[in-house]
Specification:
Largest sheet: 8 strands, mixed
Oligomer: single chain
Strand order of the largest sheet: 1-2-3-4-5-6-7-8
Radius of gyration: 16 Å
Number of strands: 16
Distance between the termini: 39 Å
Helix content: 10-25%
Amino acid sequence: MEIQEDYTGHVQPGGAAARRRLDALTVTKISVGRMDNNAYLLTCRRTGDALLIDAADDPERLTDLLGHDEDRPRLRTIVTTHRHPDHWQALGSIAGQTGSYTVAHPLDSEPLPIPPDREVGHGETIQVGESALEVVHLRGHTPGSIALLYRDPVGHPHLFTGDSLFPGGVGKTGTPEDFRSLLDDVENRVFGVLTDDTWFYPGHGDDSTLGNERPKLSEWRARGW
């Protein structure tokens, strides 16, 4: 599989993956499936252990992303950000192939094709080799939607937001109450505690930074759901 090393945050359906090299982790982004879902492979550069965020679709492409050489990453963990089916079509296949343990929030675990080996809540951590990801529960797109925060000790934070936050607004909600819940959580648990240089990675489309989106928060609330 072709992997571009000049990471911009943009990938295309059926196209090359893109890899970002941090001091302790690599982040590899790929678009899969008919709904242009992003899947993210995080690999510890010291141990070779890896974590996949959203085994969304195209199990063959995700397997190719892992590689086939003896020194390929060892996929230990698969995290599902939320219950919507476009984010877990390949979950059973990839977990079965690799023996990875699976993780989700308890409020979104019931619809998944296989029960999670671990259910996590707000503030808990998930290991990727020697690095830790912090779980951020963002209520509204679904009851159990989670984001994953990596606080790079030698750089800026990195936040994987699922379908809860995109460039241009929060994720889709079904009621005004759900919209207010999601925007409140995004404001309080994301923008309220993280710096403008935080780079965030959504479940579909291109990446952005909190600094780019922060000036639009009042516009999003006025626009409503």
